[in-house]
Amino acid sequence: MRWSGTRARAGTVRRRLHEGELGPVPALLALAVTWVVFQSLNDNFLSPRNLSVLSVDIVGTGMIAVGIVFVLLIGEIDLSVGSLAGLAGALFAALNVNLGMPEWPAVIIAVICGAAAGAGHGFIFARIGVPAFVVTLAGLLGWNGLMLYLLGPESSINFSGDGLVATLTNRYFSAAVATYGLAALGTAAYLLASYQDRRRRGAAGMPYRPVGEIWARTALLAAVAFTAVYVLRRFEGPPLALLIFLGVIVASDLFLRRTPYGRQILALGGGVEAARRAGVDVARVRIWVFLVSGGLAAVGGLFVASRLTSATTVPGSGMLLINAIAAAVIGGTSLFGGRGSAWSALLGVLIIQSIASGMALLGVEPAVQFMITAGVLLLAVIFDSLARRAAESRGRV
Q1: Domain enclosing residue 343, as ranges
Q2: In the chain, fewer beta carbons within 10 Å around the N or the C end?
Q3: 57 C-beta neighbours (distance < 10 Å), count
Q4: Is residue 393 very low, low, confident or very high in pLDDT (cuts 50, 70, 90)?
Q5: Is residue 14 one of the residues assigned to a domain?
Q6: Of 336, 345, 340, nearest to 385 (Cα)?
């Protein structure tokens, strides 16, 4: 059984390479090239300080990109996330500063409102039949208008730099026991989950990873985790924002891969009619996916506001929306649905923010940054299209 499982696994890897389904490999290569190029041009790029700033800067956009991944997995798009992110920050600030509401309930209300708005988009799309593009475009305009109304003539509301929301991006952990212990705990959890998955797949007669590959992946994860902790501790320590972001990614990934509801989302992206015949409640899944997108957009908006300690019109300007969608696609999520993971958001936003950070260190004007990011996005979309064409030629789509 062990050798047959190994041969089946090797055959799966060869098939994926032949059909262009390389998973996160292209994004990882792009990230590696980006870091090597900018480090060669400026020695400060991979400094502990710059990497620490980078690890916080990616969180706001990254949270929104995770929600976009859910929507892209069913083959749809959500254009309202930037406006919802701005609305969440404005709503929190208006409740907390203008009305004197404590931060915790203001945060909860902001997130609930984002999720409710997303569910409303999903309902109009799924139950009434209005295309998601049109519904969320209307949401982009409408929620942006409400954000501007809440911010008032000053177009910004400053809040406490010592409160709950501000702490999201200015809190760091430097204790060696806690930080290295967390890295060890995460690595051990991955190893245990991998062995459980191997045993479950073997018992079902399905291909499974050989023990050597599991240990190799665990060793790689441990190297990345402990190196990251070591580098970040040389500045101020791992930031709270990054730990929350990684927690959301892990939870989203487990939900999509290990739960029946997550598999329904992937099935819907593979084909609406096939999913319906398999018993999937298409309308309910679509509404739930847009609810997740709206909720995570609100969370991302609070992280953006936390970074500025102010609710402003910046999230609704359009760049946050563009970067979030670009991050999901560059990270490996297909625009055609059915392929991708929550980790795509992390890889994609790392690439985009690394380009922005490197350009800032080199003193390059933002216009050049936009052109480079556009080129990377175009390459990702071309690769996605070629992979889909290869799958179609083999009758898999």
Answers
A1: 23-171+239-391
A2: N
A3: 20
A4: low
A5: no
A6: 336
